[in-house]
């Protein structure tokens, strides 16, 4: 049974920081590209950051320089470090595992709210 379990979301003030985690099980984690996506109310789900199985990185322009994606294959976990958070970063953040575009798994999401 495949599971992607996100954690680390919450309420933070503008300018604050959070670190999201996504723990995977049931997949050969090191073979999967991993990504973080987010979806705000009434909007589509968009890519935030991506890390390939080989460690190549992609970031949305809106988060470059503020967010950092990383992975620990031994712990089968992908992380999203988020600094200098803005109200427009408020969304449900989802973890995605992708195997060569052929197999995709999603987590259940974790809420991030940036508000004073």
Helix and strand arrangement:
Layout: E1 3-7, E2 10-12, E3 18-25, E4 33-39, E5 46-51, E6 57-59, E7 67-72, E8 77-82, E9 91-99, E10 103-106, E11 110-114
Parallel strand pairs: 2-11
Antiparallel strand pairs: 1-3, 3-8, 4-5, 4-9, 5-6, 7-8, 9-10, 9-11
Q: Could you characterize what this model shows?
A:
It is a single chain. With 116 residues, the protein is mainly beta. It has strands at 3-7, 10-12, 18-25, 33-39, 46-51, 57-59, 67-72, 77-82, 91-99, 103-106, 110-114. A hairpin with a 4-residue loop joins β7 and β8. It starts with a strand and ends with a strand. The mean pLDDT is 97.
What would you say about this model in short?
This protein is mostly beta strands and about 120 residues long. It has strands at about 5, 10, 20-25, 35-40, 45-50, 55-60, 65-70, 75-80, 90-100, 105, 110-115.
If you average the pLDDT, what whole number results?
97
Helix share of residues?
under 10%
Q: Sum up the overall morphology in one term.
A: globular
Say how many strands there are.
11
What is the CA-CA span between the terminal residues?
Answer: 40 Å
Main sheet record: 7 strands, mixed
Order of helices and strands: EEEEEEEEEEE
What is the helix tally? 0
Structural class: mainly beta
Compute the CA-based radius of gyration: 13 Å
Portion of residues in beta strands equals over 45%
Low-pLDDT parts are none
